[in-house]
Prior knowledge:
The chain is α+β, with helices and mostly antiparallel strands. It has helices at 2-22, 36-41, 47-64, 71-78, 148-152, 168-173; strands spanning 28-33, 67-68, 83-86, 93-96, 100-104, 116-121, 128-130, 134-138, 144-146, 165-166.
Amino acid sequence: xxxxxxxxxxxxxxxxxxxxxxxxxxxxxxxxxxxxxxxxxxxxxxxxxxxxxxxxxxxxxxxxxxxxxxxxxxxxxxxxxxxxxxxxxxxxxxxxxxxxxxxxxxxxxxxxxxxxxxxxxxxxxxxxxxxxxxxxxxxxxxxxxxxxxxxxxxxxxxxxxxxxxxxxxxxxxxxxxxxxxxxxxx
Length: 186
């Protein structure tokens, strides 16, 4: 009996260390803006750069936002009143509204599409992610952070197909360990 208890404790301890090793580390900081006025009021971004950055963020959102076949499914993933319908085309779909736009890096001389990403909230309201599923973490100093590879994963010069419309089946099949590339700690 004692032996199985020690094996269980050893297994639990090694699983904890393995999960901690999987968490990505932040290497890019930025600020999250919900509007152009909020961006202009900050000292992080020159006022003249706010409109182009948020326009590009909106364009990226329209091209890459998660898509769901029902409002209920979208709200189950992102929370109540977070989703909007997109009628027209071959099929109506629903996608979350961005919480805001994460602006990162040195603005001067940078490619605008490498500096901004829409940020989405998960249903529990404590976890955030951006285009492609990269995590976004609040840094406790008014700034948010993610990884450089997450920010640079979207290339606007490549024609990209819109994201696949997700169904209850596709949502269920990706749950469990590794269902998202990263998450925000509490």
